[in-house]
UniProtKB/TrEMBL annotation:
Name of the protein this chain belongs to: Diguanylate cyclase/phosphodiesterase with PAS/PAC sensor(S)
Domain EAL residues, every copy: 24-276
Parent-record interval covered: 741 to 1016 of 1016
Length: 276
């Protein structure tokens, strides 16, 4: 093929690389404009107390309603946002918007719930991150106990010393810290327990097959038991079936988040759902 169109292999590879680079560049530029164009939106997924199905919290999940691309999943743009540093302004918007929305719901007289916000490693590396969170809470007037920051296992471990100090400060303010996607990294609960965390979320890859795969079920049970012995609460993420729920209930898992009860929903729909 190289000979046919008169190009050598190098040219073909480099043109493929160029196409990829161009795509990323285009997406980066669109992402840059997305904030001004107000193309980001938060969806909210309720988190339930397993025992009585009461809604205890709501996770804010970012969506990009792109004029060029349609609805883009965070899996598709968060990695690029992290690489380019755009996650800093985007993450700031997410925090503000989630706090504003939660305060609004509380002001409307709804029973207060904790809003959970996902935080990237890049955000936690910002020296002024604690101050940023503080001022957002001041501006939005959301009481600190109604904010939870979700940090993945790898983020928490990546800069354990910096994380430790920041998370301690945030914890002292009354903000809750949860470890997201637990089980996918290389940390142990004992290691994480040095951080001021209150909850761990079992990654959905273990939940998915736990009703058919003995190994996954064993891992989930072990995580729950260990977390409880360290006095942490546990959320199972990605729960889709009654069978999964029943095993989790039996193992005394505390909280459930998953399609079984609700997908992430736009704010108004989430409120309607939560009110019953
Ligand atoms: P995550 O924080 O672990 O969020 C849970 C993901 O699982 C969400 O995907 C949610 O829609 C999905 N999920 C919940 N229940 C079920 C279920 O029963 N079955 C299945 N198959 N999936 C379920 P989503 O919204 O696509 O977000 C993906 C990831 O993108 C998040 O994973 C988080 O790591 C990241 N992300 C989302 N919003 C933000 C944000 O504002 N900031 C940052 N830094 N990351 C975000
Ligand atoms: Mg999360
Ligand atoms: Mg997760
Ligand atoms: Mg995840």
């Amino acid at each position: 093929r190289a000979k046919e169109n008169g190009k050598n292999q190098m040219e073909i590879y480099s043109s493929e690389i160029n196409t990829l680079t161009m795509e990323r560049f285009t997406m980066e530029n669109q992402l840059r404009k997305a904030l001004e164009r107000e193309e980001f939106v938060l969806h909210y997924q309720p988190q339930f107390n397993l025992k009585n199905t009461e809604v205890i919290g709501i996770e804010a999940l970012l969506r990009w309603n792109s004029s060029d691309r349609g609805i883009v999943s965070p899996m598709e743009f968060i990695p690029l946002a992290e690489e380019t540093g755009l996650i800093i302004p985007i993450g700031l918007w997410v925090l503000k918007e989630a706090c504003r929305q939660n305060k609004y719901w509380i002001d409307q007289g709804h029973r207060p719930k904790i809003v959970s916000v996902n935080i990237s490693a890049r955000q936690l590396q910002q020296k002024d991150f604690v101050q940023t969170v503080k001022s957002i809470l001041e501006v939005t007037q959301l009481p600190t106990q109604y904010l939870c920051l979700e940090i993945t296992e790898s983020t928490a471990i990546k800069n354990i010393d910096i994380s430790m100090n920041m998370l301690k400060e945030l914890g002292e303010l009354g903000i809750k810290i949860a470890i997201d996607d637990f089980g996918t990294g290389y940390s142990s609960l004992a290691m994480l327990k040095q951080l001021p965390i209150s909850n761990i979320k079992i990654d959905k890859s273990f939940i998915r097959d736990m009703d058919v795969d003995k190994d996954d079920a064993a891992i989930v049970k072990a995580i729950i038991a260990m977390a409880h012995s360290l006095e942490l609460t546990v959320t199972a993420e990605g729960v889709e079936t009654e069978d999964q729920k029943n095993i989790l209930l039996q193992e005394k898992c505390n909280y459930l988040q998953g399609y079984l009860y609700s997908k992430p929903l736009p704010a108004e729909e989430c409120l309607r759902f939560v009110q019953g």
